[in-house]
Design goal:
Layout lengths: L1 H25 L4 H25 L10 H20 L3 H20 L8
Helix pairs in contact: 1-2, 2-3, 3-4
């Protein structure tokens, strides 16, 4: 039952991310900040999804779940395109570095971060 909370959390964060991406690509002045928040909400959405699947005993870091990994890669490609469109290469490189660190932690130490 706890996994349902993670899925609901993931869905709400994903909806917020989509709205913020829309605002970020539409706005001229605040576009960069909307896109940064959109990426943070997208990360929260992916984190909620990963947590819910982890509670069900499924690790998204095993490469047997190719469609899910492809989904994440496509989203990150969109993030790169969004920031390149507004000329902010440093931001997506920082997000890529954070993503790599989180994947390394998820693969080699999935029980390191526990909240129980």
């Amino acid at each position: 039952m706890l996994y349902q909370i993670g899925l609901a959390f993931s869905l709400i964060a994903a909806l917020m991310s989509v709205v913020l991406f829309y605002l970020g690509l539409k706005s001229e002045k605040k576009g960069k900040w909307y896109l940064i928040w959109a990426v943070l909400f997208l990360g929260a959405s992916f984190g909620g999804l990963e947590w819910a699947l982890y509670l069900l005993g499924i690790s998204i870091f095993s490469f047997f779940i190719f469609p899910l990994i492809a989904f994440f890669a496509i989203w990150f490609g969109f993030i790169i395109w969004s920031f390149e469109r507004i000329g902010e290469r440093k931001i997506w490189i920082v997000f890529l570095a954070i993503l790599i660190v989180m994947i390394i932690i998820g693969v080699y130490c999935p029980n390191c971060v526990q909240f129980s």
